[in-house]
Amino acid sequence: MPSAQTLLQVDDISLSFGGVKALQGVSFDVKAGELFSIIGPNGAGKTSMLNCVSGRYHPQVGSIRFREKEITRLKPNQRCNLGIGRTFQNLALFNHMSVLDNIMVGRHHLLKNNFLTGGLYWLTGARKEELEHRRQVEEIIDFLEIAHIRKAQAGTLSYGLRKRVELARAVALKPDLILLDEPMAGMNHEEKEDMARYIIDLNEEWGMTVVMIEHDMGVVMDLSHRVMVLDFGKKIAAGLPDEIMANATVKKAYLGEEDDDLVDSEGEVA
Amino acid sequence: MSLGSSMRPCGDYRTTYASDMTIFATPVTRYITLAFIALLFLVPFVGSPYVLNLMIQIGYYGIAALGLNLVVGFTGQISLGHSAFFGFGAFASAWLSNSFGVPVFFAIPLAGVLTMLVGLLVGIPAGRIKGLYLAIATLASQFILEDFFARAGWFTGGSAGAMTEYLTIFGFSFDTDQSYYYVVLIYVVLIFTFTSNLIRSRDGRALVAVRDHYLSAEIMGINLTWYRVMSFGLSALYAGIGGALFGHYLGFVSAEGFTIILSIQFLAMIIIGGLGSIYGTILGTIFMVLLPELMEWSVNLFSGSYPDLVQSLAYIKEMAIGLAIILFLIFEPEGLAHRWQRIKAYWKLYPFSY
Ligand SMILES: Nc1ncnc2c1ncn2[C@@H]1O[C@H](COP(=O)(O)OP(=O)(O)O)[C@@H](O)[C@H]1O
Ligand SMILES: [Mg+2]
């Protein structure tokens, strides 16, 4: 598991929206090949942290480096070339496109055809190129078991399936680092088990480094190599899953909170 | 977007990805479409001059409307200045051939390119602003260009307008409706095929992605500014070519025709036809070209009993356009393309309605 090489290095990130301090001096690193989880109560700043890594937010203070390269100021669309992909907490599919087209959009930065060559399709090799990528996309479709809905319009699918299509789209980016924002939220037990299996496979078979935000503590403890806990924008703990479970601060700040949605219906909080 | 699966007969499984990626949903659709295009080539032999004239109008308006659909229907932006691009293309082609002796054959596509440059310029704010602000910006571009048409006598001939030459290839002059019809038809076939290909390849998908969810489009590596500006450039390219075809058909171009009213008519074509639908664009254009004809026809029918009607014809035509837009927005917001899908589905399943 943790090979020594650092893939993502986050140093002293602070982010505020007007008066709201979403993140305050957060530092952590993720090693290549790791499955790293971020947990914490609602509003703790977990999504904001992912947004800083994926480029949607630019922190006022601190630096983010990916494979030693400074990316803090890079635009979001310049980050997939480097190998960063993500899914969203609230579904963010292209609702009027087919599932297949949604996933093909993930290949955007890998495809070369453009307005002109795409329009001339047969004459410019665009057809051949699209076909090659279609083949690779079909592998992702098979892996995530969504072959039966590939022609369906994304916006018409059930919540669980849409989450899966979003994952497929992120995988199509061919990322080295994949950021998953609550990939199992709102899923039933069976769907969660499937999703957990996909995430493990992506990490182990496909060799992707995973940073995941998840509320289901059972899943987090089973899957993660390391866990970081955020509370009110601050990092309050980080370590191996067992250490986190035993940490008194974490228990107080987070695990003890009965009304939080992390103590979900199935009572999976150990 | 066409989602083929629901329209495919059951049991029709694709065995290769290539056969799944053809431009037509089924071989039958392909043959029907190709046969239809072949039939279109026969129209000059049987159609009356009246019919030919209408079809030529549908051709050049349809090309321009398709451009507008790219920016509005596919990319999800708003453009209220499309007729100014159409006009610019008409003047540009006349200017190129009159002032520089550029053969009309080349002047038409070149006019498209010049108009595209103007469109890119107008599109620059689109990279930054959306919604109502963009609507106002494009409206402003409409008025600025109209003003330009009136003042730039060197380009447009000023208030007198510009004469245009007929298209001539190897000494053959396309100066009749019969011959010019083929010019327009070939442009229509090429541009609609090009656009169908574009929409199913990388950059076409990117446009739709920008429309559907621009934040996640950006995460997918799509440069929002580039695609928002380019969609304006493309829409102007199409409008410019449509306008140039219009100019060399009429033999004369004057600025009065390219007002906000025509821009709204272009919007009506794509709303009625179906936003984000390529063949819907043609359906909508047919509707909008035939609607005034229908009005005129009905007015003449009743003019015996209500002679005043004839004087009000111009108003009746405009009101009919407005009414059509409103009725479609209320009852068929997805346009004729959607209605057509439903009719096809109905007959496919007949007599079982589900
Ligand atoms: N775009 C934004 N504008 C203003 N406040 C924001 C924005 N994004 C996040 N916040 C605030 O930052 C804090 C952290 O939010 P978030 O990162 O979404 O938390 P989490 O994902 O841990 O539930 C919250 O107080 C939230 O209201
Ligand atoms: Mg969140």
Automatic annotation (TrEMBL), chain A:
Annotated ranges, domain ABC transporter: 8-257
Q: Does the keyword Oxidoreductase apply?
A: no
Which keywords has UniProt assigned to this entry? ATP-binding, Nucleotide-binding, Transport
Matches recorded under InterPro entries: AAA+_ATPase (IPR003593), ABC_AA/LPS_Transport (IPR051120), ABC_transporter-like_ATP-bd (IPR003439), BCA_ABC_TP_C (IPR032823), P-loop_NTPase (IPR027417)
Key word Nucleotide-binding present: yes
Which one of the record's GO molecular function terms can you name?
A: ATP binding
Instruction: Please indicate which superkingdom the organism of origin belongs to.
Output: Bacteria
Q: Supply one GO CC term from the record.
A: plasma membrane
Q: Which PANTHER family match?
A: ABC TRANSPORTER ATP-BINDING PROTEIN (PTHR45772:SF1), CONSERVED COMPONENT OF ABC TRANSPORTER FOR NATURAL AMINO ACIDS-RELATED (PTHR45772)
Q: What name does the UniProt record give this protein? A: Branched-chain amino acid transport system ATP-binding protein
Q: Which organism is it from?
A: Malonomonas rubra DSM 5091
TrEMBL record, chain B:
Compartments, as annotated in UniProt: Cell membrane
State the membrane topology.
Multi-pass membrane protein
Primary place of residence? membrane
Query: What UniProt keywords are attached to this protein's entry?
Result: Cell membrane, Membrane, Transmembrane, Transmembrane helix
Question: What Pfam families would the database entry show?
Answer: BPD_transp_2
One GO cellular component term: plasma membrane
Task: Enumerate the InterPro entries for this protein.
Answer: ABC_transp_permease, LivM-like
Its recorded name reads Amino acid/amide ABC transporter membrane protein 2, HAAT family
Taxonomic superkingdom: Bacteria
**Gene Ontology MF terms:** branched-chain amino acid transmembrane transporter activity
**Which segments cross the bilayer?**
31-52, 59-80, 100-124, 131-150, 180-199, 229-252, 258-291, 312-331
